[in-house]
Design a protein that fits this description.
The complex is a heterodimer of chains A (217) and B (10). Chain A contains 9 helices and no strands. Chain A has 217 residues and is mainly alpha-helical. In chain A, helix 1 runs parallel beside helix 3, helix 1 packs antiparallel against helix 8 and helix 2 packs antiparallel against helix 3. The longest helix of chain A is centred in the last third of the chain and has 32 residues. Chain A is globular, with a radius of gyration of 18 Å. The C terminus of chain A is likely disordered. Chain B is low in regular secondary structure and 10 residues long. Chain B is rod-shaped. Classes of the chains: A mainly alpha (217), B little secondary structure (10). At the A-B interface, helix 1, helix 3 and helix 6 of A face loops of B.
């Protein structure tokens, strides 16, 4: 375990907590893409199948997996529940959340069958999950770019999520130098995901800097 | 020997 990976996992944890806090505290789902959240549930369900094999890697690894699965499902439940509690916002979300996830699902499924560590169900599912995670944020970024504005909490959510996978890259470099091992599929998908976030990072950086620039006397 | 790959990262 190295500091990059710990910080990365904590950033991932923080992003989900920010999202849940965002929905519960502001009691609005405005600007949140339910498609991205459903994709994340799929990412965790297909990646953590080894929970059923009871070959637990470590206590930390297991509780984090259980947390990610349960919290991502909880977010989707919260968003679905807003169908009754805030019907207008829910309808608006469906109208603005228009990214064609079929293309993501088909593309990542093909990638999983073509590029995997072993042609077994668990490994293809794992590979599908890694490829899917690298593009799962697209509906959310698409919605954000269309609406042009968003609550700051949503922006912080995306930033923390992007930071998590970006931190995994130095983690992989660290592990390569200390343990001599590297997972090429995870590395490739992680680089793609970081690139997907890069334009968002640029916007976020400008927005934050611009705001602080404005604050200067 | 059990040849399943162990992914130790989240």
């Amino acid at each position: 375990m190295n500091p990059f990976r710990i910080l990365g996992d904590l950033s991932h944890l923080a992003s989900i907590l920010v999202l849940i806090f965002n929905i519960k505290s502001t009691n609005t789902i405005e600007g949140i893409s339910i498609k991205t959240q459903v994709l994340y549930v799929l990412v965790f369900l297909t990646r953590y199948l080894d929970l059923f094999s009871f070959r637990l890697v470590s206590f930390y690894n297991t509780i984090m997996k259980l947390f990610f699965i349960s919290s991502s499902i909880y977010v989707v439940v919260l968003l679905q529940r807003s169908k009754t509690t805030q019907a207008v916002a829910y309808k608006t979300m469906l109208l603005t959340d228009t990214f064609k996830v079929q293309y993501i699902l088909l593309g990542t499924l093909i990638a999983a069958f073509v590029i995997n560590h072993k042609f077994t169900f668990v490994e293809i599912a794992w590979s599908f999950s890694v490829w899917l995670e690298s593009v799962a944020i697209l509906p959310q970024l698409f919605m954000l770019s269309k609406s042009g504005k968003s609550k700051s909490l949503t922006v912080h959510y995306i930033f923390a999520l992007g930071l998590y996978r970006t931190l995994y890259i130095p983690n992989w470099i660290w592990r390569y130098h200390t343990e001599g091992v590297i997972d090429k599929i995870a590395l490739a998908a992680g680089i793609i995901q970081t690139l997907v976030y890069s334009d968002f990072f640029y916007l976020y950086y400008k927005k934050v800097i611009k705001r602080s620039a404005l604050n200067l006397p | 020997v059990d040849s399943t790959i162990v992914h130790d990262e989240l």
